Amino acid sequence: MDDHTRVTWLYLLKAKSDVLQIFLDFLKMVETQYKTVVKAVRSDNAPELKFVNLFKSKGIIAYHSCPETPEQNSVVERKHQHILNVARSLMFQSRVPEEYWGDCVLTAVFLINRLPTPLLKNKSPYEVLTSKKPNYTSLRVFGCLCYSSTSSKNRHKFQPRAKACIFLGYPSGYKGYKLLDLETKSIHISRNVVFHETIFPFSSRDSAGPFSDIFGSINESLIENDTKIVDSNIPVVVREAPILSEPPTVVNDSVNDSHEDSAPKSVPTASTSRSKRESKQPAHLKDYFCNLSRKGVQYPLSDYMSYDQLSTPYRAYICSVTKYSEPSSFFQAKKSDDWIKAMNAELQALEGTATWEICSLPSNKKAIGCKWVYKVKLNADGTLERYKARLVAKGYTQQEGVDFEDTFSPVAKMTTVKTLLAVAAAKKWSLYQLDISNAFLNGDLYEEIYMNLPPGYTPKEGEEIPPNAVCKLKKSLYGLKQASRQWFLKFRSTLLSLGFQQSHADHTLFVKKQQWQVHCCSCLCR
Amino acid sequence: MKKAFKLRDLGSLQYFFGLEVARSASGISVCQRKYALDILEETGMLACKPSAIPMEPSIKLVGDGAEPVINDSASYRRLVGKLMYLTITRPEITYAMNKLCQFTSAPKGSHMKATLKVLQYIKGTIGNGLFYSATSDFVLKRFTDADWASCRDSRRSTSGYCMFLGESMISWKSKKQQMASHSSAESEYRAMQYAVREIVWLVHLLTDLQVPQHAPVAFFCDSTTAIHIANNSVFHERTKHVELDCHIVRDRIMSGPIKILHVTTDLQLAYVFTKSLYPTQFKSIVGKMSLKYMPS
Lengths: 526, 296
What we know:
The complex is a heterodimer. By secondary structure, chain A is an alpha+beta fold. Chain A folds into 3 domains: 119 residues, Ribonuclease H-like superfamily/Ribonuclease H (Nucleotidyltransferase, domain 5); 66 residues; 193 residues, no CATH class. Chain A has 14 helices and 19 strands. Chain A is elongated and about 115 Å long. Chain A starts with 18 loop residues before the first helix and ends with a strand. In chain B, the strands form 2 sheets. Chain B has a 5-stranded antiparallel β-sheet with strand order 2-3-4-5-11. The longest helix of chain B is centred in the middle third of the chain and has 25 residues. The two termini of chain B are 33 Å apart. Strand 14 of chain A pairs antiparallel with strand 1 of chain B, so a sheet runs across the interface.
């Protein structure tokens, strides 16, 4: 920057080490163009700007500001601020991507050099330097849409005569404009350009806001009708069942409030072109089930699946089945209070039914492991019933002949289930689902099995656990090799005593015939 | 039962073991929409291009060959295992899965590609499932078919059958036969034998469910020769090596519980369990299978 005329030259460097060469070129340029020599250079203390040898050989005096005192270099520092201010506003107006920052800065310097300033008695730096008035007629709005004529050599008769570009500045040494081709993203220089200075292509891409794609197809009826899918053609977002009082993840106090806020009040028009910006799901959509979103997808799922044929309660059920997730390990589960509560409940239930007693492991015995398994249980209408934690023994560590003998237990065949459904449909039987709580715990255990303490087990207050403590199992526990067999034997004997008959075709099918009524029971446990 | 165990009434049947059961006045539908959706999500195929058929008929998968085994064969096994469970309500992918399962020990790139094709088909038909009509009768019908020497590696045939109770499809299978056959008629005859075993069991089961079968069960087969073999001991010269266990078909026809009828190939529903078909034929057969999109 020249102290007298305040003309600024700006060079973009690839590396800081290039600065010496650039500075030499600059000195040459000044000598040739303005028939003068640089007498003094003022800079801050940046080591790359201390060209001691060069200054000595050219007889240039170097002034440096004191350490930590940028105000001594105020002219350049202030100019730096000015350039960035202008460059920022150019960028924000045109919304060109950040990768074109260099063009913004160069254009800013070009403009500042040609703008009148009160410091120079309302003359522009350019005018003071060259004693010529700058020509303002060639100035254009940065980042605006323009059409540059395609070269007549490279086009045939039915190719477009012009292509859409963006104006990116004034190249030095050319009487033309620097343009960015919107289609190929290549930069070229052209003089045959038509400008549309009020249109900013990059800006209009974002004008609908970052959420426009998501909200594009939701309308107001979503607010009133929570579980209803809005438009059968474009079912993008399904609101989860309103009956769910608790969210499945860590309880968040603001969840209920955000239900009101999250519904969009207005529908912005979705723009047809797509922004390149990487999109994230907005935080307030976490209460929605966005599986069917058609955003940015060529073959959206909504074309092949929709819930709009389902009755409302069934849809609520299906939505909640789709939505809940379950932790897979104790370490994941212990972060959530819901699961900790569930595990405590299970431990209490197990102790309440005297499933085990705690003792030391006898020296000639081996203990088997155990782990937690987590499950979300739903009611018939899809509402959350409870978080279920189940303690299972690691049955695969059991030894045959010592810890178990027979293990076979019949499981209902899928063909049987399908046949039952087909018959039930045609005979208009009603179908019910029953769940037997802690079914396997009903089985009696005859073998002597020791199990490690469950993860997270802490004894009650005042209770001492013996050294090398294990649980001696008294009842059959989930995961034991013989658990399903013991349970099936119990189930079978109970049903037979109730008057059911075991089918010979599928041993898991039990039938009871009464007047006008047929009861079928199928055991589905694994 | 309430007295014996602590019970919880889960209401009417809606969701068990990944099967979504919906009931309306017209009948019961069973589908695995959520399960299929989960598979697609795990494999990152949610946005894939859907396909009209589960398997490309022009591609013949082989186990042997120069192609290297894929690095992550465990993932192939997992995926195929998951898709196997999906065949509970998706009979139309049964053949494809049967084929793909034969390569789990050493899966190759082409097998993985074929598995992804199945996923693409699932994506296009994600809500499909079985439909059991309320207006159906209780007559058992059976279709059997075989594809002679279809396995490129062992030259064994594939047999397939499907069984209807009235309009409802309740049982189906696609299976590589345990023995190589000399002729297509022989392989069809073997296919019948698999089906007869199943039918004997199903008649028992239906009797237990208070739906006894009075008339002989109709057996549809598109091979006239196999029908002749089943009905009479003709063609001795060409069938004398057939093991006696296959002749249970003949015994059952003699003693009455089944009868065999001829059906033309375009009405042969078991076709889809023995071959991979082109879209037009595939759609026309699957359309007859009482599969339905989830009703309200």
